[in-house]
Amino acid sequence: MSTATCQCSSIDYWNNSYCVALLYPGQTCTSSSQCINASSCISSICQCNTNYYYSTLTGQCTYQLSYSSTCTLGNYQCLNNTLCYDLRTSPTGTCACDSTYYYYDGTSCTAYATYGATCAAATYGPICDSVARSLQCIGSQCSCSSTTYYNSSSCVSYTHVGFSCTTSSQCVTNSNCSSGICTCLSTYYFDTTTGNCVTLLTYGQACTSSVQCPTNMLCTSSQCLCTSTTYYSSPNCVSRISYGGTCSLTILCDTTLGLVCTSSVCQCNSTQYWSTLSNGMQICANLRTLGQSCTASTDCTNSATSVTCKSSICECDSNAYYLDQATVTCQPLEALGVACTATYNFECASFNCNASNVCGTAISSTIKSNVSQASSESCLRRPHNTMFLRMIGIYLFFFEL
Question: Which residues constitute the domain of residue 32?
């Protein structure tokens, strides 16, 4: 004969004394056995288990509806990551994936892959978030398109050259953020036609503007060529050598300053000198002629032989030359007995030019001897330089009368 056991009904539980009604979600509990079916006592409160919701129609915890199921109560009816769409505009809705999720492998909704995550082009993904983040699956990785960059939340258009920026990652390809402005890299130039940074041309290539050419080059005669102060030394244009620098057939002097390579040194040609202008600039200038201002004897023409800079004026070296006023040239002082011009009276080395137009002639043999002796002394170079020679000149004057 079988026996039976006294139990509480399905809607009650035994409280160690008698059967009492099961607790519903939201009610206080001490044990999950006190809660209705498909619910548990969590933090002393009865709650529906995962993937279940409390149905006010049945009074039970009901398994959530799957993807594409019809829903009538609200989002909580649908499985995790799905929402009850269209319920606001009609009595019924459909459980569908949230906007940040997609229906993965036909079983559940999963979040779209974010920037840098692995992706696949197949239907079931992983799929990049193309809606909220504008990502694309490129090379099995979620990335931005070539015209956009990731700003930590989504793909946005690159900042073009000339516009403000905070980091180089914002700027178009081949440019960086310099002083808060997107600027082409040093080996690129901005092409106004395409709006891109394009590689600079090289020496000798055809060009339409100097911006296409590298530093120290200009677009001259439709070619990228070195500037006047530089010369081409592959692969760049380098500065020409200034005054006093070493030069050769391949190391060139700065011709804009008038320099030429002489004996492997950059210097001015024989008719010029190295001059400092009032603005501080230094160039080769034409040698100063007699009577012109100077700062050193080397500024004057023929400074190596007959001209010197005296009192800041180029004049003949009075120790050995005199100024020929007819030709405006420095001529050697004449020796005793050589013809001279009495009207000038400064052509002779040690004597006056007498009335016979001869240096120190037409005097007695005794005086001639004395004069010859005086002329041999180094301190008696000019008749007008000492008191002694002045006295001789006066004597000769009266003697010839």
Answer: 1-63
